[in-house]
Fold this protein.
Amino acid sequence: YRDLTVDDIPAGLRLCRMAGWNQLAADWELFLRLSPRGCRAAVQDRKVVGTVTTVNYENRFAWVGMVLVDPETRGQGVGTRLLQEAISILRGLPSIRLDATPQGHPVYERLGFKDEYELCRMQLAETLAAGLPRGSAAISPSSLSQSEGLSIRPMRAEDLAAVAEADRRIFGADRLEILRWALEQSPEYAWIAAGPAGLEGYCFGRHGFNFDQIGPVHSPRELVSQRLVTASLSSVKPGTRVIVDPLLHSPTWLDWLQKTGFVHQRPFTRMALGENRHPGLPSEMWTMFGPEFG
């Protein structure tokens, strides 16, 4: 077990493809830039057979992700050891958090992680052949900017300071560098909503190997979040598959996603080890950035 390095990115991508995961080389590069000494590799016969990544958010809490194990090495305790390596790296922080699949949930429970709340992954039932999906077809970004007193427009670099300030309050810690990365990598999915009182909400997105993902989407109002997702979907290229990772706190939100064309793919459970003193505002979170980032 040793530090993961930039030279290991091809090995990480190999494990992603074997597991059917969505990450690209740019994601691994970001993990290593955010936490150059906080990502670990399991090596057997000079071959990387497992990975884990960590992201420290202002020493308020840390996120664990990318727990991948080569299928040929499963059943040997590699995944559990990688998690223990991550916990050791993050020792002293008040809380360590992650998003668990049903398969991983018992492993995390045995290590002391406790449930926080539920979320899930949803996928557009079909790729977008052209324009917006059903349920949103009557709404375009131009009409949105004139409706409900909202201005919905593409995010610009100069918006990031205000967006990051709002995101720190909602998410629970600063992640300006990650949001800047998302805007630079996938500007077509980054939108903001402004009203008479100022910033009403924002969304980002990113490209992936299997899907493009929309999220995070944050706003005090569900309606604004619907409008932001619709605007983001208007930028999806034909033939692209799309996913979102919504919270389950609003039945009407899930109903709207289903009417828009999203179908349930799998559940996640947000879990924490230690006391989460900075939970943010889950009621204003509508979709997440992804299980590896929170």
User: Anything to note?
Assistant: Confidence is low (pLDDT under 50) at residues 134-139. The first strand starts at residue 2 and ends at 3. Residues 78-89 form the longest helix (12 residues). DSSP finds nine helices and 13 strands in the chain.
